[in-house]
Amino acid sequence: MNFVEENEIKNSTIILVGPSYPWLAEELGREVFGESYDYLERYYDTKIDFEKMNNLGNRVVVFLSDDDPFINLENAKEYYSHLKNIEIKEFQNKGHFNTGAWVTELKEILDYIESEKAF
């Protein structure tokens, strides 16, 4: 999203898969990454300028899992609800999207991208 803001990309579809949000990222980042957190601190401290994002006219589609142990679904929904043109798609029982949870491919997202709804 920061790339989109900085480069003023307009009227596009942005797809976010299991995205974090600032207060989760800091809390979880320090717990999971320990000393390596300092390396990632710039990423975690980055805030989204929702007003600018809304003015760029982009559509944002957020994919989340209802049982992700790291990304709280309700907090993520609340954070991203500041975007005007947003669609939140919920997966059931997919956990955290990574190899540790055996989620290495989400066909539903590929199907969505290939559909005309994505663009």
Main attributes of the structure:
single chain; 119 residues; alpha/beta; Rossmann fold; three-stranded parallel sheet; 6 helices; 3 strands; 15% strand
Write up what this structure looks like:
The chain is 40% helix and 15% strand. The chain is an alpha/beta fold and 119 residues long. It has a single domain, classed as Alpha/Beta hydrolase fold, catalytic domain (Rossmann fold), CATH 3.40.50. Strands 1-2-3 form a three-stranded parallel beta sheet, covered by helices on one side. β2, α5 and β3 (86-91) form a beta-alpha-beta unit. α2 packs antiparallel against α3. The longest helix is centred in the first third of the chain and has 12 residues, at 22-33. It is globular.
Give a quick summary of the entry.
It contains 6 helices and 3 strands; from the N terminus they run H-E-H-H-H-E-H-E-H.
Strands in their spatial order, largest beta sheet: 1-2-3
CATH class: Alpha Beta
Q: How many domains?
A: 1
Q: How many beta-strand elements?
A: 3
The helix tally amounts to 6
CATH superfamily: Alpha/Beta hydrolase fold, catalytic domain
Largest sheet: 3 strands, parallel
Order of helices and strands: HEHHHEHEH
Examine the secondary-structure arrangement and name the CATH architecture: 3-Layer(aba) Sandwich
Shape field: globular
The structure class reads alpha/beta
Query: Which residues sit in consecutive blocks of at least 5 with pLDDT less than 50?
Result: none
CATH topology: Rossmann fold
